[in-house]
Design goal:
With 143 residues, the chain is mostly helical. It contains five helices and three strands, in the order αβββαααα. The longest helix is centred in the N-terminal third of the chain and has 41 residues, at 3-43.
């Protein structure tokens, strides 16, 4: 191996080492934020009322219904109207919860986008970004 090839390998090695150091710095920054974000997500509750004020629904950060309250007016309403009111309130609460969830995790997502992808470090390897985007596009969403 001549001097030029050796310097080329050293340069490539240093470049890869710099990318890995950068990725580790980002990872450590994310870890510091994750516990706080998880606590906020665990505590998040969103309420919404139906437009006719028959029902109020509370959901958690995942949009799962945690409470349903019916007004006195709902007790006199037709069952199908009460059902529609519950669904309307639940959907509104779930949309709001999704929006708040996305806002809470946005800093982590933004930081993750700065990290080098696996093919940047190891040419020819599969992309974790492509896999994540595929899962996000195929997965269920609230609302």
């Amino acid at each position: 191996m001549d001097q030029w090839e050796l310097e080329s390998l050293r340069s490539a090695n240093n470049g890869m080492r710099n990318q890995i150091d950068y990725a580790m710095d980002i990872y450590e920054k994310q870890q510091a934020q994750l516990a706080e974000i998880q606590q906020q997500l665990d505590a998040l509750r969103v309420q919404a009322s139906s437009s006719d004020q028959l029902a109020e629904v509370t959901v958690d950060s995942a949009g799962v219904v945690t409470d349903v309250r019916l007004t006195a007016q709902a007790m006199r309403a037709k069952p199908e109207n009460v059902g529609r009111a519950i669904v309307e309130a639940a959907q509104a609460a779930a949309r709001s919860a999704r929006s708040q969830h996305d806002a809470l995790i946005a800093p982590i997502v933004d930081i993750a986008e700065l990290m080098p992808d696996l093919p940047d470090l190891v040419p020819g390897s599969p992309s974790w970004r492509d896999a994540r985007e595929s899962a996000e596009n195929d997965g269920p969403r609230a609302g």
